[in-house]
Amino acid sequence: WVCDPGKCCEAVTGRPWAQVEKEMEQDPAKDKAFKSQTQLANYFMAQIDLLALMCFGRSNNCIAWLSKSFGYTTLVSVCLNPRLPANARATFSGLLRALYVDRYPQQPFVGRAALPEQLWIYEWGEAKSNNKGMEIGGQGLPLIRPGLRLEEDGALPSFSIPRDHALMWNPDPFLGFPGHAKFFLVRHFTNKFLELSGGKLVHADKQVNELTSKVLELTQGLLSFGFQSTIQKLEALVPLIVKILDGRNDSEKLQISDGKKTLVGFSPPESRWITSTDSATILPSKIAAIKILMNVADLRANFRLGKLLEVFKKMSDSKEGRLELGKHHCFVLAGKEATYPGPFHAELFDSFEALFVAGDGARMDLSALAGMDVETILLDCIMYEDDELFAQALRCLERTFAQRRALVNALANVTLLHRAEVAVFGGAARLQSRLSYLGSLVRSSEVWGVCSKVSGPFQPESYDYFVETTQLLRAFLLAPELQVESSKFASPPPLRRPSRGHSDEIKEDTPADGSKSTETAASEGALPRPTEQHQDILRAMDFGAILSEALYMDYNLTFMGSICQDSEKMESRRMILESQKSLMELAVLFVSGNPKNQKILMEHLPALRKLMGPFRMPPLAANFDPALKAQLEESVAMPRTGIGTERVVIECLRGNLRLSADAVPRDQLEQMAQLLDQDPDPSDSYIGDFFLVLCEPDGPESALCANQEYAAIVLLAPHLTNIKRCIDFVFSIDEDAEPCAKPERIVELVCALVSHRNLRTAPMLQTSGITTERVLGALNKRSDEAASKGCDWAHDGLFTWLLKLLALQMESLVIDPKLFTRSSTWKVALCDCPYVVRDFLKQHVTPPGIAEQGSTGPAFYSCRAALILAKLVLTNGRALKLVEMEDHYREDAKEVGDLCVEVHQLYGKVGENSLDFEAVECLKVLRNDLITAERSADRSKKSESENVDKLGDSKVDLASHDFKRSLQEYFSFFCECVSKNSFLLNKMSARKFALVEILESAEARTDPAKLDKLDFPSACSVTWNAVVDRLVGYARDHNYDKDEGSVKRCYRVLTAHLLKARSRPDGSLFDPSYDLDDLMEREECFAEIKKLQDNLNEKGATEAALVTVATHEAGVEDSSAEAALQLLSELVRFGNKAAQATIVNYFVTQDKEGAWVEHIMKRAEFGLAYLNTRLEQAAFSYFLPMDSNQRTGYADLLFTAQLVHFLCEGHNRALQSYFREQAGRSNSANMVRMMAQTVTVACDKSAVLTRMENLEVATITELLWSLNETVEGPCRENQDMLTKMPDFLGALERILASPFHPRVDIGLRLDAKHAVLRLLQALLEGQTNLAMHQRVAGEVSPATLELARTFVGAAAETHRATVIDLFVVMRRLYFELALLPSHGEEVALLLENRRAEEGLDLLDTHVGHFEVSWNGRVETVCFALPEETFYLSKETKDHFMKSVDLSTAEKRMKILLAKLPAFIGEMDHIYKLSTSNQAYKLVSKNLENIKWAMYSVIVLLNVVLLMVTFGE
Question: Going by C-beta distance under 8 Å and a sequence separation of 6 or more, which residues neighbour residue 287?
Fold first, then answer.
């Protein structure tokens, strides 16, 4: 009672508190006794708080122990009792939540993996629906049900225990109670308290505020766990929550005067935002209130998703609907979805939009539920100094204005089951129940897996359930997809996602019960293939979270102080360890070949790394049993033991280029190398796969140069003795080295280090002793051994890998000519290699064999390496004029040529690839069957053209489409319809600035003058600048937070603020430089953008973004660094000088180590890796559309180039130099060279340019514009470096000469040529000694320029303005190169010939020029003639020429200047009339002809009249 004497004193003592207080003032002993009693009461409540904290986080042993002493009804009674002090009720509310509410079987998201739910059932099939709820029969599975209404049971997901759950009949009511009425008493308590509070908080009343926060935490738990999931409960709850959240209702204190209580508001009102000892007690309440609103938003999104799936079910149930879905998919395949003629787009949009603006969907809106303006209340919450409240409020605001996009994303994440039946488990509900209980066992291993006084005896039944469930899950992952018979849908093909192991051979004989372990299967050559749909089902059931939790199980837990026998400790260790190992084996299957699952587990890489290596030795007591201690030491010392997380990491990276490029820290390579070296025989360790996958995530074509380089540094380190011993043995570096079991694995690993012709790692091999001579020697030795044993050459692992390594080294290194004079080299190339090719041909004699495995298997790459080797030896032999050697092996060379023809003929039936390409190239060297090769090349060109037409330019073929597909295929078609719906895309585009508009208009929305002072005593105004200060301050202060979500939101809002200034009403963006014709309007737009940029820059946004980029890793998808770069891009767009100055100052004063530019360099390197994979694809095949990973990589590279472009815009000399060289750094990051090298690599062949699509051309074009910005001004150092780079100017010439392919937009093709011409002009800018001109002219011939001119001129009719701009640049380039006499003469001759044949074009008629004296030389300035100049009438011209005094130039110019206003006025007038009135334009253009026609008619009439009247 002493905690709240004002309320409780009289009830306890029988006297009012005022009297008791007076007595204490008079009697010190009573005062001391009261204080002692108060201290005791606080101590008692602190004990209760401690007990609650012991149970916090679901500490199962503590919960089980303390629930015996604190009964549920006891705690609820204490919480409900209004006569108790508020802080006592708050304390017991916390214990109630920890002991009974926040524990298993209650789970966040109502027990789902996420909300909206990811797993849905299309129909129950034979199961009967009760038509009362979405979760039929307590199964806990969402069913797509037509006509669902919010008032119906199950419309929103709620707590339930399925009948198949292990706890269904548990006698403990807190475990076995199956329905959502379980915590009725708690819900009654929380709602009643919130209702009585009236939503008004008094900052000075700390005890009540503490109770309020505890009540809201209880409420949030009940809602999250599914105990408030009906519309009636939400409509009663949300208004109470929003009132608590509204800070304008808050009061500073409660003033009592003459027995009258008065709430006193804040003065000034803004002071309530400041964190103080009083306000600190109300902040948790507001944070909990926002979390409750977010939970309501989750339920709303889930309901809307169910209604959207209802639209799909209605469509797919009808034949017409399925036909329409298939028809739309045909348009998507042809890339013509925008031209889809059916009504489905409009109908689907109407159904989609109705979910937000009408009916039950709109009823679930937060403001509608609350009956108040929630957005304005959240705006007020943003201004509190507490960062957590700011972050939650901003998150809720963003969620409010991104509902449509969130629903589209949720639809894409849905896994749809035809019926509630799955393989192995029978029912999907049974699988879900098993997983749910398995998750609880994983989180409670300290209960069932430990024998102690607290946890009790072992629970073998729980361990058996654990083991049984993992075995069933393994069988489920490997079982084929369940086939469902349906008259409406076809059966899905029984396909499994491939998984590359040590070889491409897949073990298909795995028993259905999963008895063969993953480790055994892998050691035999490959992992078993899991079924993709089953992986997706487990992900939708949150199996990824269970595996993540398993990483934190501690098999040595019982050794940390448990009081039990030593044997019991050993048994505990065994049980938990085996359980953890079995889950890691499941993790390998769960992630294998599944990018989404791989990403889930790679987010827990630090935890995976902690479990790597052998088992850990537990801490042992001094008196521990010696025999058991020996067993432990033996198990720890055994090689190749451990949990197996290394395999999980390997499979997470396999086939995933993005994760391999940016998710693995460098110190992990060192850790894995140490583990590999700890194995007695590294050649036989699966750890080697880590380096193979890291260097080549998806085969040799996907080699990552940066990973190869660091892997080479790590693996070739001399301190790794076992690895070095294996290398020494394989390559005979040390004759005394012990042999290894699998030398081919070592050679395969070395090949991975240099694949894709890595010029950095190849020399490392040479210096480490793996020289070309040693590889050749090992190859000859192996070939002799293989020949003597009659081995299968194509499948002799060591021989084929040595062959590949030799070919790679010869391609990458400058080889000593003496090597080609040796007979052993020719023997390998022309005698041994044919065996490999011949054996390959024997095994691949039919096109199906090639299509299935001939382009991916090791034999394929061995055959390719053999042909490359033969080609290289013959080429170098002829270059060295080794005629005798060639004559000696002439017959062998002829045999190689014959085999090349066979390879080409074989592959000609199924399409060109890298092996076919090498066969043709080898034929060209051999000069054997040259006619065949030429015909093949012609056929290849024709086939390529046909294939391109088929893939890129074909009409939509509906006749050949099979419209009976599986349910999953139709659902994917429906997702396409939603994501590509033009009406929906326009709607989302128009709303993308809604959030920033709310924030910008904050001052008007929060104006206190609009509110009643009595109802809102603390109302105050929020300004945009104050919001900016909070956004920038939060981003700066929380830069290093693990959860980057809030920082990203801050940057996104600031970026949207800048983008909005150049957006149209429909949300689309425009560039004022090109899209605004009116000069005044353009200047006003630029001024507005600059004003916004300067404001953000002054408030520190630029510096905050720079720090974020410099302190985060590059390439991490959707990171705060990505958002910061987007903001920087907008801050410096259009050459903002203030932002550029801030950036330069940051580089000079703070980022002296160059962390920011290193980040940008790494982004460019990652983009180059994707570019290489694409080029490998384009170099050997016809046009193929880019996959999603390639598109992402190219888009990142394009944005990186665009950022450099904007940073250097306006000829910023400091930044131009900085991107080339950073002062004070010994190893500068040369971004200019990197971009130039990327252009050179991307355009190394003319044929590659014709196989590009829009994104590729756009990326190269942006790189060229960026390079242009780095040299304009001019920056002489950058000019000199670029013109001296090998083949860079040649790449520019190839772009100029290439017409690209019609699939590429003509605007992009013109822009690419424009960028090249501008860059060439910039390279020559300011050069007086003509040395630069000589370099450019040496690569870019006049014929190429004339070819580009012809191409550009052909587009004049459709892109007139662009063509004229291009011709202006081209005319300026002509003048510059004409300074070289020989070049000028050739250009003049070409121009004369073209004009004689084709006449004048726009370059001749619409480009003007004049000469000025500049810096001691004559400069020519070219410009586009205004269109008005062509509208001066002939009469005006003639009149001027007749009246002008031509005697002197001065008189002519004087008269011309005097007449100029009249000329301009006439031209403008006629031009405006011509452009606005088509009839006037037609008459004006043909006025002379019209006059002659009229004159002719008059003459004719006169002649007729004369003839009629003749003789009269």
Answer: 386, 388, 389, 392
Measuring CA to CA, which residue among 161, 170, 152 is closest to residue 107?
161
d(Cα 1311, Cα 513) in Å, to the nearest integer?
60
Mean pLDDT of the chain: 86
CB 328 within 8 A of CB 978: no
Instruction: Tell me which residue of 1371, 1356, 1384, 1259 sits closest to 1321, measured CA to CA.
Output: 1371
Q: SS3 of 367, please?
A: helix
The widest CA-to-CA distance across the chain, in whole angstroms, is: 153
Which amino acid would we find at residue 454? Answer: V
3-state secondary structure (DSSP) of residue 1420? strand
Name the phi and psi angles at 1015, rounded to 5: -80, -30
- Beta strands, E only, 1328-1369: none
- Name the residue among 1239, 1254, 1332 with its Cα closest to residue 1293: 1239
pLDDT class of 848 with cuts at 50, 70, 90:
very low
- Strands (E) across 1139-1278 are located at none
**Which pLDDT value is given to residue 927?**
57
Q: Output the CA torsion 713→718→724→729 (10° steps).
A: 120
Helix axes 5-13, 17-26, angle to 10 degrees: 90
Query: Measured between alpha carbons, how far is 515 from 532 in angstroms, rounded to an integer?
Result: 20
- Among residues 252, 262, 240, 237, the alpha carbon closest in space to that of 282 is found at 252
Strand 415-417 and strand 260-264: the pairing is unpaired
Q: What is the pLDDT of residues 562-610, one digit of tens each?
A: 889 999 999 999 999 999 999 999 999 999 999 999 999 999 999 999 9
Strand-pairing partners, residue 415, are: 119
Q: What are the b/e assignments for 432-465, b being 16+ CB within 10 Å?
A: bbbbbbbbbbbbbbbbbbbbbeebeebbeebbeb
Give the number of C-alpha atoms closer than 13 A to the C-alpha of residue 1, restricted to the C-beta side.
Answer: 16
Phi, psi of 988 (to 5 degrees): -65, -35
Where does residue 1479 rank: exposed (0-12), middle (13-18), buried (19+ CB within 10 A)?
A: exposed
Name the token pair of 1470. Answer: 């006629």
* Number of residues assigned to the chain: 1512
Contact 775, 731 (CB under 8 A): yes
pTM metric for this prediction? 0.86
pLDDT mean over 210-221: 96
What is the share, in percent, of the chain residues with pLDDT greater than 90? 51
Contact 1125, 1105 (CB under 8 A): yes
How would you write 591-653 as a 3-class SS string? HCCCHHHHHHHHCCHHHHHHCCCCCCCCCCCCCCCHHHHHHHHHHHHCCCCCCCHHHHHHHHH
DSSP, res 424: T
Question: How does pLDDT run across 1291-1301, given as a tens digit for each residue?
Answer: 999 999 999 98
Residue 1359, token pair as written in the block: 């892109």
Nearest one of 1047, 1220, 1196 to 1129, comparing CA atoms: 1196
